[in-house]
Amino acid sequence: MPLEYTSRKVGPVFFVSLAGTVDLDAAREAYDRVLRACVDGGCTSLLLDARGVDGELSTVERFDFGKHVAERNTTAERDLGLTLRVALVARVPLADPGHFAAVVANNRGGKIKVAEQVEDAFDWFGIAPLDGR
């Protein structure tokens, strides 16, 4: 079953709220859809609010997902000539304490941040949080 999401532009950020139960296939599918919508909408900052997502991925699945994110981001950056930054707002157990998937993605050229608060994600983007989050 796919993860459900709603999206909107909040200033220069493509803000996505995710809900449902995660598994590797659902995570990949949802990421591909929201990344495409983000770049089609002219945004280069993607904030994924996954506080409404249940479940967790295994260590191997986290590795695979981090690799998937890096591949999709670097392909989009190369093809479109832009730099993408992605922040994931999530809590344990979805976001493991070591942020392994983000480490994998960053080691492969992704620009990924995991945060527990939306404000921390906006801070990483270098902008003040805006109303309407």
Please outline what is shown here.
This protein has helices spanning 24-40, 59-80, 100-107, 118-125; strands spanning 4-10, 13-21, 45-54, 85-89, 112-115. It is of the alpha/beta class and 133 residues long. The chain has one domain (4-90, 103-125): STAS domain (Transcription Regulator spoIIAA), CATH 3.30.750.24.
Q: What are the SSEs and their pairings?
A:
Elements (H helix, E strand, L loop, with lengths): L3 E7 L2 E9 L2 H17 L4 E10 L4 H22 L4 E5 L10 H8 L4 E4 L2 H8 L8
Parallel strand pairs: 2-3, 3-4, 4-5
Antiparallel strand pairs: 1-2
Mean pLDDT rating = 92
Number of domains: 1
Stretches where pLDDT is under 50 for at least 5 consecutive residues are none
Gyration radius, to the nearest Å? 13 Å
Briefly note the CATH topology name: Transcription Regulator spoIIAA
| CATH homologous superfamily classification | STAS domain
- Alpha-carbon distance between the termini? 26 Å
CATH architecture label: 2-Layer Sandwich
- What percent strand? 25-35%
Number of helices: 4
What is the class in the CATH system?
A: Alpha Beta
Strand order of the largest sheet: 1-2-3-4-5
Helix content: 40-55%
Shape: globular
Structural class by sheet pairing and helices: alpha/beta
Overall number of strands: 5
- SSE string, helix = H, strand = E? EEHEHEHEH
* Sheet having the most strands: 5 strands, mixed
Structure report:
Helix content is 41%, strand content 26%. It is globular, with a radius of gyration of 13 Å. It is of the alpha/beta class and 133 residues long. The protein has one domain: STAS domain (Transcription Regulator spoIIAA, 2-Layer Sandwich), CATH 3.30.750. It has a five-stranded mixed beta sheet, sandwiched between helices. It has four helices and five strands. α2 (59-80) links the parallel β3 (45-54) and β4. α1 (24-40) runs parallel beside α2 (59-80) and α2 runs parallel beside α3 (100-107).
